[in-house]
Amino acid sequence: IDGARMSLWRFITDEYIKNDAILGGGPLWFVEALLLFTGGYVLWRLVGGRAPQKPQTQVPFPHSGFVALFAVGLGLVGFLVRLWRPVGWHFAPLNLQFPFFAQYIALFILGLIAYRRNWLMTLPDKTGARWLVLGIVLVLAFPLLGLVGGAANGGVDVFTGGWHWQALGYALWESFLCVSVCIGLIYAFRRYANRQGRLTRHMARGAYTVYIIHAVVITGLAYAIRGIDIHPLLKFGVVSLIGVPLCFALSALITRIPYADRVL
Question: What's the whole-model pTM score?
Answer without folding.
Answer: 0.83
